[in-house]
């Protein structure tokens, strides 16, 4: 067992609590950078897909996991980020400015939508955002002169300082590009959490009334959370559309938003690691189901199997492990550190809640 002795505020907000964690994450980074030399093109593509889902999942995690606001409409913001990035690239804007501006535009639109939407709570907010996701599908079709409608658009060539990056011809370069985005988003996410704004997010999540009593501006905090969340989701949507090569209104349907919710719940709601673990499940589960159906079903396709399995997993985790995969790992690690003094009911779920929350 390792003990962390905090001798100042800088120690308390340090990105890495000790040398062990710093070395561990450095080793993971080296492993991630070396994957193109260890895997073939198929698995490099799958790992790229995992990283893209991770970016989108971090966007929803910031809103749902850190601020406690449920959104079922992040697929709409992913679509906005994708179309904004591609249209700017088609207009002659280089990839890096177009990519970053797509995130900014998506964040601003998300913040504007959040002003009326975040007056709602709980299931009403979820329904409102779900309606937004369904509406986005129709808007893409109606704005066919710009979006291509049902015919969609083709992703333009990515050129970064003269280096052409393509998913098929240079999958390793594409993987490293997406990995750089993941590292940047994760670093920004972690720094937001240790800032006063991040502490406000946690206060609003735990109790809006208590946060308001402590001087937190609830409306501003929620709007900032929604805007930042949409900006990150827009970056993930841009990467997803460029990775697909061709996309239309069907690419970003509301089922993508449902998968995002399942991803953050299964991975571990409120944990950065949960977005990574959930992305692995979302990206590799369809491949696993395809292998199983081809092996035991003699090539038969089962309609709705993937959606059914996703829903079943979500129900299981909500009932038996609401902290997700990363929460389960934390429990196992804590039990091992305290063995043989760990108690059986040490991780028993608390059923109590603040009585002040009944007034909402």
From TrEMBL:
The chain crosses the membrane at residues 24-44, 50-65, 95-115, 122-146, 173-192, 224-246, 252-271, 276-296, 308-326. The keyword Oxidoreductase does not apply. The keyword Cell cycle does not apply. Coiled coil: none annotated. Its main location: membrane. GO terms for molecular function: branched-chain amino acid transmembrane transporter activity. Keywords: Cell membrane, Membrane, Transmembrane, Transmembrane helix. InterPro entries: ABC_transp_permease, LivM-like. Signal peptide: none annotated. GO terms for cellular component: plasma membrane. It is found in: Cell membrane. It is a multi-pass membrane protein. This is Branched-chain amino acid ABC transporter permease. It comes from Falsigemmobacter intermedius.
